[in-house]
Specification:
Nucleotidyltransferase, domain 5; alpha/beta; 7-stranded mixed β-sheet; 2 domains; 20% strand; 5-stranded mixed β-sheet; globular; 22 strands; single chain
Length: 511
Amino acid sequence: MSSLLGIDNGLTVTKAVIFDADGSQLSVARRRVPQSMPHARWVERDMAGLWQATAEAIREAIALSGRPASDIKAVAATAHGDGLYLLDNDRRPLGPGILSLDSRSGEIVDRWSRSSVFAEALALTGQVPHASSPSSLLVWLREHDPERFSRTGHVFACKDWLRFCLTGTIGTDLTEASTSFTNVRTQSYVPEAMRIFGLEALFEALPPMAHSADIVGYVTADAAAMSGLAKGTPVACGLHDVTASALGIGGHEEGVVSIVAGTYSINEIVSTEPRVDPRWFCRNAIDLGRWNNMSISPASTANYDWFLDTLCRPEQDEAKRTGGSIHEMLAAEIDVALGRPSTILFHPYLFGSPYGNAASASFLGLHGWHDRGDMLKAVLEGIVFNHRTHVEALRDGFAVREVRLTGGGSRNPAFAQMFADVLNAPVIVTSTDEAAAFGAALCAGAAVGLFATPQQGARAVSETSHEYLPDAARNAAFEDRFSLYCRIAESLKPQWPEIERLARQSIEGAA
């Protein structure tokens, strides 16, 4: 028998998922990874703790699979992209990992937006920097923590740290390498990209690139002792979780918009030539000669999770006590709200937005007769509206023949139907529960010859799917609401910096 291990590290949970060679899921184990927010806009976590939690999840997944560790033929990891995980020259963690929800470098990005940096970066690298990009975070460290910056030996993404913990090898893949410092046309690192940001001194700290399905090392004795994996198990290079999710639902193909409704609003499409536009990141796809065009913002289901944590605490506690589902407990409230009209509009900008760092979330049209269900409906609608903002940008630039949806929200039929109605397009949801982990496992399988390529593996593995068709009447209603949603966001653009100024005034007054 043959099985594959896909590791998927998100922003709050690390998962180990074991798949049979036919794509069926054998087991999954999860561990929460605590976040630290020591200051406003900082979101960090302990790197050693992340590996410990991942190793525990791997050990549990092996036990749950009912098969010996030796049955696992290969391993690959995926994880949240962007952010920053640093090693010093002795290959030890250099401070905590910085997550892609971190926005401490927002003022630096704002400064760049008023200079030539944005235009230069877009032309050369295919994207403008944002608050959690490696470029802006490294500059923040240079300006605010120069001692740590000076000790930087290796610049990693999250999944590269997990690969290092498994194998002891340094490196990254094509998809992750293109977050800040590659030439969008040659798809390779260039010193000029570092020069744009004043980071020339760190060019040698960038990790060497390999294909996502290349074997880049083998499980070490130490990693085997911690995780329960067999020593010497091949480890493939892995990939950015955005790309892994699209691959896992069969959507890493030309003409397919893959939507990931997770912490981030991810919307992506593959092209055979680089097409640069400030509305999306033009990054490397899995293969050279292919590009993954990503229109994204940290403004998706993290807003829903915040609502649950903040305004549904009794239900959250009850779900934990009984082992039930908070989503099922609230489904009736949401269903009732979906069946009645509402004036509430929600802009889902709690952690970021397509409008830059200053934007903030808001409920508008809220009245005393509205209840929690009405607010939950507005949160879900606002999330889908934000995805539509990104999807419309991609429709402007690329021919779209199909829309696929994954992420935690895709398992809710009402939410998936809302996507179809708002986008006015059929939306396909596959039965793959752990799409990103499956995408990593497909790379692992291709690395040891079980599949010719990761994409062919995705095509060969049969997955059931459900197609949600748009309803004309609901689409018409959403069109009116989306138009107003957009107009309000545009009108708030000059006000958001003023709102942020109020907070600074309060802090200065208290001091």
